[in-house]
Amino acid sequence: MIPFDYHCPTRIVFGPDQVDTLGALAQECGGSRVLLISDPGVIEAGHTERAIQALQKASIEVQVFGDVQENPTTADVAAGQQLAQDYQPDLLIGLGGGSSMDCAKGINFLYTNGGEMKDYWGIDKASKPMLPMIAIPTTAGTGSETQSFALISDAETHVKMACGDKKARCAIALLDPTLTLTQPQRVTALTGIDALSHALETFVTTKRTQISLAYSRESWRLLSTNLPRVLDNPSDLEARSAMQIGACLAGLAIENSMLGATHALANPLTASFEMVHGQAIGILLPHVIRYNAQEVGTWYQELANAQGVTPEVASDELADGVQQLVAQAELPTTLSQCDIPRENLPKLGEQAAEQWTAQFNPRKVDSEELTSIYEHAF
Q1: Position 314 confidence tier, pLDDT thresholds 50, 70, 90
Q2: Structural domain ending residue among the three candidates 180, 199, 223
Q3: Which is nearest to 77 in space by CA: 118, 110, 44?
Q4: For 289, which of 9, 95, 185, 319 could close a Cys bridge (C-beta 3.0–4.6 Å)?
């Protein structure tokens, strides 16, 4: 068994309509002046206003930063940090998908510790305490609410920087499945596939521990059985609740085991071609499963067996099952469908090899092997 040091400081509050308790939760965190970070889609859906009302009922002042874009950049964080400097909040709230939560963490880094986002690229680079933060996911995807990492893209180079620090962990993760009911079907599919990949990748990384495995297993059980239900019936609140908990548990697994080659391969596609993260993940994950099976086929077998798959074909069945889910979600299943030029694959392979998560993949990868996976996915 791999040694580990486990501590989970994030309080997890779950239940339908729990967002209405936000005022009381903010008070418990010592909040009186809140900077609420959200995005235009969540604002349009009315969730931001609902959160504001809950805070104001508790006599808490609120300022909204609502300009977060998908795949937040250093420019987004800098703009939010400037607003924070002017407003002087004592509590941050990230309301939305992973982009809003990550941007809120990024703002926290700069507001409390100064400098630029690149100064925190890596692990534990912050020297000063950070503000308490409440994360409220409106998707079942990234699991950012239970992670200490913010994934921020450089506005000029588009390189994704993973900035992690224990001080950036959220005080509270508030899971309200009613907030996920307004998602467009495409967003449900993209975030759901991403969450599913987290369960699968964390289960086999070289840094997996008994703690992370427990989260990965339960996350896989909840996500693999309920994503098809949500795709078939978007208003199924029970299935959406299971998806949101599954995504949260997968976030806890990431915090304790990291990710692997699928995410290393996905990031260059987002940086170079602005491909949506979940779409890239959905295309590549089946091929990474087949590649890794040579090393961790018996581990995949455990997950596949939970769904009644025969051991002899467990890895192939697992990969095929993921690909079928991607197809069911009406998402592309090949890179060629996304107009990625084949001649760019070697360069993408080099970029993937430089990604931080590549080092945790259970079967070693280099630029040539990663290019080969791109070729299989083409």
Answers
A1: low
A2: 180
A3: 110
A4: 319
